[in-house]
Amino acid sequence: MKNVAHRLNVSVEDLDLSLWADYENELILRHFSETSPEDLLKMYNLSLCQTLLLKAIEMKLSVKGSSSYKEILRSVKWLGLMYTPERKDDGKVCVSIEGALTLFKLTERYGNAIAKLLPMIVSEDGWEIEADIVKKYDGKTHLNIASFPLFKYLLRLLEL
Fold first, then answer.
1. Residue range 1-45, pLDDT digits in tens
2. Strands 140-145 and 82-87
3. List of residues 6+ apart from 27 with CB closer than 8 A
């Protein structure tokens, strides 16, 4: 230890302390930004919705406005997902988002990518989503349209 401390031009004590600095219980919190209870609840609900979307095979998205959906579609392409856009008469853009293999096989492979889109979507105004979520029980795979009361309730809370 003395040789290494000498070569690094530090004291043996400092070298000994730095060897364990990457352990979690040795980390020092230098800055903390306070979060309001409402913002904390929104982050928690967003996380719950993303967890549900991990099992999604398709998401239907509706966004108002002409500029907001373009950035979302860029992200959809970047995440390796496919989409089918449709412009409605009321000015909304409806987009069906799914993974490429979902056309051939019921797979949860793209749920992570779909979940990554959610923060971008909820940051926009006038959004609505619906998702097809795969649920496994009794050793079988079942497809449930995300009319889960919890899912819709959490999405409503994100709009507060």
1. 889 889 889 999 888 888 877 888 877 888 888 989 988 888 888
2. unpaired
3. 21
**Do 13 and 49 belong together in one domain?**
no
Give the other-Cβ count within 10 Å of 69's Cβ: 24
Q: Are 72 and 113 in contact (CB under 8 A)?
A: no
Residue 31, judged by CB atoms within 10 A of its CB (0-12, 13-18, 19+), counts as exposed
- DSSP structure class, residue 5: H
Asked whether residue 10 falls in the same domain as residue 77, the answer is no
51-77 per-position pLDDT tens digit: 888 888 888 888 776 566 788 888 889
Q: CATH number of the domain at 128, please.
A: 3.30.70
Contact in structure between 62 and 92 (CB atoms under 8 Å): yes
Q: Is the pTM of this model over 0.90?
A: no
Is 139 in a helix, a strand, or coil? coil
Q: Are residues 4 and 83 in the same domain?
A: no
Domain of residue 57: give its range.
34-158
